[in-house]
Amino acid sequence: xxxxxxxxxxxxxxxxxxxxxxxxxxxxxxxDPKADKWCGIFSCxxxxxxxxxxxxxxxxxxxxxxxxxxxWKIITLILTPLILTTxxxxxxxxxxxxxxxxxTMAIYWxxxxxxxxxxxxxxxxxxxxxxxxxxxxVAVTYTQGAVILYMGAFILYQAIEGCHLHERxxxxxILMIGTSPKLLMFGVMFTTMLISIxxxxxxxxxxxxxxxxxxxRELNTTDDNTENSRRAxxxxxxxxxxxxxxxxxxxxxxxxxxxxxxxxxxxxxxxxAPKEDSIFCQETHGLFLSVAxxxxxxxxxxxxxxxxxxxxxxxxxxxxxxxxxLSFDTWMLFSIPNMLVCTIFGxxxxxxxxxxxxxxxxxxxxxxxxxxxxxLRKYERLGAVTYHECTVIxxxxxxxxxxxxxxxxxxxxxxxxxxxxxxxxxxxxxxLVIILHILPATTDYLKCGINEGTxxxxxxxxxxxxxxxxxxxxxxxxxxxxYSLTHGIQILELSxxxxxxxxxxxxxxxxxxxxxxxxxxxxLTQVASSVSIANxxxxxxxxxxxxxxxxxxxxxxxxxICCSFSFMLxxxxxxxxxxxxxxxxxxxxxxxxxxIMSIICVLxxxxxxxxxxxxxxxxxxxxEWINEAHNSTGPK
Length: 636
What we know:
Blueprint: H1 26-29, E1 50-53, E2 56-59, H2 61-69, H3 72-84, H4 94-111, H5 116-120, H6 122-129, H7 135-141, H8 145-162, H9 165-177, H10 183-195, H11 201-206, H12 209-219, H13 226-234, H14 246-256, H15 259-269, H16 279-283, H17 285-298, H18 307-319, H19 328-354, H20 358-367, H21 370-381, H22 387-404, H23 426-438, H24 464-470, H25 473-491, H26 494-502, H27 510-524, H28 530-547, H29 552-562, H30 574-583, H31 587-617, H32 623-631
Helix pairs in contact: 3-4, 4-6, 8-18, 8-23, 9-10, 9-21, 10-17, 10-19, 12-13, 12-21, 17-19, 17-30, 18-25, 18-28, 19-31, 22-23, 25-28, 26-28, 27-29, 27-31, 28-29, 29-31
């Protein structure tokens, strides 16, 4: 029985588990359900929902259930493999073990029970332990040529960011297009789309946010505070070197609802959002959304625009080793028209939804120094074009030429002349990356010896320290996991099983299957990582194409592009999250336009593959693809 104090109030028994100062057991002191989700499933049952009884307060049944579900991640982490292992009672073959591994990875990716890269490493453990493949051979799949291509493209982007070349291009394009009511949003959207073809979507969005804030202040300026508002906007720098890991933003924020990390990322931009009670804020939501949507659409414009595109390239090379139809030139010939049409429809949609009173604001702003002057001042602040920028743009253009002329569709490329070896797109970009490490960023080295004591060491265009800090290693592992799963299908000869299973769909019209796969990819990518969705869907779609005797590009290419169309939710894609916080818009505002954008982009992509795709990829031919798939046994 509990002891009583002189006033008659019951006291907790003073034992080794009771705090002498509070009279509480450690279990009762855990009042915050967010304290530590790894403290244990059972100890959390006293957090909420207590009922009175004669002896004090005890948790109700609802309290137990509710608090257990607060730890749904650890529950998912433990129960998923336990439930799936029951399948081994009927079949314990390596094929069943592979299926359990894939399903477990899919559930972990969708629920974020553990970080995405950690889930992506499961094949390195499961395949050797389950007797599916040797560790060394599984590890090789994580370093396919497509992964090297993505790494080289990312380093090239870091060189562009380091000299602020992308900022200069953005501002110059907006000045050239114009800042009239009809052209302002189009100029911002077209500029963002263009730069996101070659740089990550997060960076393309982040570089536009300070500019949009300055435009917002200019549009919201009244005659009384014109000068003060303009001076305030000038204090917002157009760019600030980011110290936040881009991959951390693009994956952790997406699926772990890590709003604190996103706020930290936004703070590095040194920007502030419009006030929530401002009428102007509602009117400029379309301007902010145009940046998010344009960066997402622009990422589909090249093979290195997003990691999903690289996933498709690597899986195609593994399942169809003789693939020569999909290259930089054919991808861009298909995706750029598709990207432009989607962007135009997106501009028209946002214009109809948000621009009703926006024109009056722009016209009024033109009476003051105006938006044009805001953009012009920021452009002039960059100064003259530097030696550093010239070096980077020359290397960048050389890289594009080497990519486009490596193995073009219409004539023999430079790589085709080397008959005995196969050169992929990763080779030229890595060669240029090495050159970037050698070339100086300034001309200070030329002054050596002119005047005594004036010798200065010129830094390189890009240094290894920057690459080491900013390389998205987690995303690279995530891309490689898709190749390891595809390799497992080949090693276990599951391709024949999948083809037999999908053979029943041969009577379904291909356009129906195309519509189904695109819709599934678009819906899943709203709530999950686009790369993880592609890792699961693309190998299955590859063998579905073989089963129905259809050119695999007919289904795989549009599905890959649709994996990028995440427009509906703030946490669906990093650009959405950034503009959501920067503009203080409501989730419903993004969802309303996002649903329309998703529908439009899916329909445009399906129409493009059925029109332009037949010309570029010879979609009638499937025999050659099928033969290559049957002859492939692993990574090439």
